[in-house]
Design brief:
5 helices, alpha/beta, Rossmann fold, 163 residues, globular, 7 strands
């Protein structure tokens, strides 16, 4: 069976854990890592296989001053992951990012990260972001690799159902 390529972008506010999420999910250090003093200043990128798919997995910078890169990263994406920092809760940047993702009309999943420290109820996330029950909201912890594959599998399933 041939391998299909999917472009997936992980979006999230500053310090949500996007770089760690991408590295732990892929099981590899990133090919490209743009950071200065532990803040991602460009984007992260890694390739990984998941089932019959070659995933081009990107993580966007979370700092608002680098938001001009979001459109570039989103161009051609097949799906998105919005990573929310459960220790902070939903931020204005998270609200902005959900609207941004919706404008691209691609399947997406919400991963509520740092569940090992603090847990947020998916029902509350749905209500605050005003998203439907059909959108997966999954508690994760990138540090301990909790539910990361589940997030990607849910996104891939949603993408392939749309095709």
């Amino acid at each position: 069976m041939s391998e299909d390529m999917l472009k997936v972008v992980v979006f999230g506010a500053l310090n949500a854990g996007k770089t760690t999420f991408v590295e732990k999910l892929s099981g590899q250090k990133l090919f490209l890592k743009g950071e200065f003093e532990s803040i991602t200043t460009s984007f992260d990128f890694v390739q990984m296989k998941q089932g019959n798919f070659l995933i081009h997995l990107f993580a966007s910078p979370g700092h608002r001053r680098f938001s001009f890169m979001w459109d570039t990263l989103a161009t051609g994406m097949d799906g998105a992951i919005l990573l929310i920092d459960s220790t902070v809760g939903i931020t204005p940047v998270d609200h902005e990012l959900i609207k941004f993702i919706l404008n691209y009309d691609v399947p997406y999943v919400i991963a509520v990260n740092k569940n090992d420290i603090c847990s947020l109820k998916p029902m509350n996330i749905r209500k605050e972001l005003d998203i439907s029950d059909e959108i997966p909201v999954i508690n994760t912890s990138a540090i301990i690799n909790q539910n990361l594959v589940n997030v990607l599998d849910n996104l891939i399933r949603t993408i392939t159902e749309k095709i």
